[in-house]
Amino acid sequence: MYKVVVPGDFISEEVARAGDGTYVEDGKVYAMKYGIVHDKGEIKVVALTGKYVPTNGDIVIGKIIEISFPYWIVDIASPYEARLHTSEFARGTERRMDFGSMSNYLDLGDLIVAKVLNVDALMRVDLALRDDFRIGDQGRLVEILHTKVPRVIGRSGSMIKMLKEKCNCFIFIAKNGRIWIKGREENMNLALQAVLMIDNEAHTSGLTDRVAHFLDQSCKKKREENGE
Amino acid sequence: MKEEGIELIKDGKRLDGRGFEELRPMKIEVGVLKRADGSCYFEMGNNKALAAVYGPREMHPRHLQNAKTAVVNYRYNMAPFSVDERKRPGPDRRSVEISKVSREAIEPVILKEHYPKTAIDIYVELLQSDAGTRTAGINAASVALADAGIPMRDLVSSVAVGKIEGEVVLDLNAAEDNHGDADMPLAMVTRTGTITMLQMDGRLTKDEFERGLKLATNACREIYELQRTALIEKYSESIGGGEE
Amino acid sequence: MGIEVMEDIRKDYVYDLIESGKRVDGRGFRDYREISVERDIIIKAEGSALVRLGDTSVLVGVKLDIGEPFSDTPNKGVLMTNTELRPGASPDFETGPPNENSVELARVVDRGIRGSEAIDLEKLCIEEGEKVWMTFIDIHALDNDGNLMDAAALGAIASLLNTRIPNERYGLTGEDTLSIRDTPVAVTMVKIGENILVDPNLHEENAATSRLTVISNADGTVSGMQKSGREGLKEEEIVEMVEIGIEKAGEIREKYLGDK
User: Taking every pair of C-alpha atoms in chain C, what is the biggest distance, in angstroms?
Assistant: First the structure.
């Protein structure tokens, strides 16, 4: 079912279908990363590890790490920092910002949900704020390897839907591996454990069912403890 | 280099019982460190090498950044307790040179253009040393880089050959290196047969050199299989029921 | 940024020229630049040589001093080789502790001499376990137009060939010159495109993807090798380069080290 490859492994001669995680040499497609071959449509190697590199359109959760007028510098769990221009904040209003007032809007350490507007050839990453951008001090922020995000979402969103229902939490997963969970203390704990489980077993089969089972068992135990 | 009074070959076998073309036993573990982005522990005879890869990550200082590619740094270090006579901690000239040739052994396969302006830092610690440490280090570093998800064309494998008592032999241990006539470490990309590291000290005839070259390249192929298997098996553990 | 671009342009020019079979200075691929070796030019040193390889120049000085032998070789003299890439020699050299290129150069030259056992270290023993002659080979790069390695190695062996032992300084008697048994010569080759060139000048060094230095002796045996550069070499290329290295070393040995 899954074919694991290491860099340099020969995959195919169908050069036209070569996609992410592969390279072409002398009319052959080779693996460029250590990961799993996906052979539907594009030939891809999906890596289990590796750093998040932003691309246009990605939704990310970032942390303000520097104020450098007219930009906030944002850490997005990537080797590349991102920046948010003050005009993005003041869009559609008459507000004008100067260095001194920037921290009134976004201060060091603040967490935001943003969209990657543009990444240029020099790897300068520009962000745009989403309407509901602010992550206050409610809830929890977790960071997993960005390569595991598709697994937490699941096919057609099946995994995350199941998590939200069974944990009774607000769960928001960003492309860069950061997850924002909001809810009651014990529900958030449960969600966290589920995410950790997915993180550890990301490339096993039948994971959605196992996680669902785990959550059911945990809820059942909780009810028993509360004497219900 | 040569010292009297020690017999390195007896009845056609080496002191540790190996044949002339035999590698020392090896052991590999992938992903052994928590904090590093990729890691590998590699034993080659009594050598114990631990490679940790961090990156790609932001490169500091900024002025050393490369606008088009990642900068690859390789730091080889021997622990003070790794050898018979304690080695004073800190880089010495030997480590500086070994770091350079090791970096050049691996850099050709790293697809640096994928991560401009970043640094890929490779740290190789020799916890125990018994000759051939730079080759053990390169074998470990190669696997650690794959473990870190760094894009590469291939894995790199490395081994040393030498000459003891007139015989060209594979994978010298410390006694053989100290009392032998030549030592030639080499690193190779198995898929293409490209040699990315070659050094020699001692004395060899042209024929001995060519024989040693063949011996080394064949051994690298064997080591490559081990590296590859270790990486594949690590994955297969987490996939229910060994696929491939 | 501007300087980088200029260098890139330079690289292409060198590369294109070589693809058409020519070198910037008109040499053949197997030709060395003009070599000159002047010996004994620093009278304060026990041995010395100034080597010019085209516009590259390296001054090597040999100093002898008395010291303790290493514990594992109580009856042998000590050999130490050091390189200084002086800032005056190139805009790319900085002051400070030796960088990796400097360290590499010294160690490769040292290995060539050690591997060939050119110096009879046992003859440098004064009192076993207590006193031996220590031979310091100091390589001073004065002007870098490429291939400091070969110039340095040639300077080292040329210096050693007429190094005096300063017995009178310590009130000793004994041999008055170093006993030199072999003449290791380094030949450095680079690969540019698919071509192998001998004795790269600075632009060729920068344009090269790989470099191999082969150090060989009078009897055709090899006593040192070092590959460097950002790409690999094929087995056949290495074998060919070793052959060229031994051949060219013979030519240089005959011409510049022949009288001693």
Answer: 63
Q: Chain A residues with CB inside 8 Å of B148's CB?
A: 49-50
Band of the pLDDT at C1, cuts 50, 70, 90? very low
Contact across the interface for B200 and C217, Cβ inside 8 Å? no
What pTM was estimated for this model as a whole? 0.86
CB B212 within 8 A of CB B201: no
- Alpha-carbon distances of B123 from A216, B53, B120, B152, rounded to whole Å: 44, 6, 10, 18
pLDDT digits (tens, 9 = 90+) for A62-104: 999 999 989 999 999 999 999 999 888 766 565 677 778 888 8
CB contact under 8 A, B202 and C115: yes
Say which of C111, C228, C238 has its CB closest to residue B213: C238
Contact A51 B244 (CB under 8 A): no
Q: Which helix (H) or strand (E) holds C253?
A: helix C235-256
Report which of residues B196 and B36 the model is more confident about: B196
SS3 at position A156: helix
CATH code of the domain covering residue A78: 2.40.50.140
- Per-residue pLDDT of C8-55, as tens digits, reads 666 677 888 888 888 888 899 999 999 999 999 888 889 999 999 999
pLDDT score of C161:
95
Which chain C residue has the Cα nearest residue B192?
A: C234
Please say whether the beta carbons of C87 and C94 come within 8 A: yes
B109 touches chain A (CB under 8 A): yes
User: What's the domain range around A131?
Assistant: 59-135
Best interface-test mutation with B: which of A34, A36, A123 has the largest number of B CBs within 10 A?
A34
Kindly indicate whether the ipTM for this predicted assembly is greater than 0.95, answering yes or no.
Answer: no
Q: C87-96, C136-145, C214-223, C251-260 — which is least confidently predicted?
A: C87-96
Please report where in the chains the tokens 């730079």 appear, as a residue. Answer: B134
For the segment(s) C10-256, the CATH number from 3.30.230.70, 3.40.630.190, 3.40.50.620, 3.30.390.10 is 3.30.230.70
Distance from CA of A4 to the nearest CA of B (A): 6
Structural domains present in chain B:
18-236 (3.30.230.70)
- Residue in B201, B204, B210, B217 to test binding to C, most C beta-carbons within 10 Å: B201
**How many pairs of residues across A and B have Cβ atoms under 8 Å apart?**
102
A-chain residues within 8 Å CB-CB of B38? Answer: 49
| Burial (CB count <10 Å: 0-12, 13-18, 19+), residue C219 | exposed
pLDDT band at B158 (very low <50, low <70, confident <90, very high): very high
Q: Phi and psi at residue A87, in whole multiples of 5°?
A: -65, -30
pLDDT value, residue B72: 97
The pLDDT value recorded for residue C128 is 93
Instruction: Assess whether A76 and A107 both reside in one domain.
Output: yes
CB contact under 8 A, C233 and B198: yes
The two structure tokens encoding residue C163: 């190094």
Tell me whether residue A53 is in a domain: no
CA distance B188 to chain A (A): 13
> How many separate domains does chain A show?
3
**Average pLDDT of span B40-60:** 93
Of B210, B218, B202, which Cα lies nearest the Cα of B157? B218
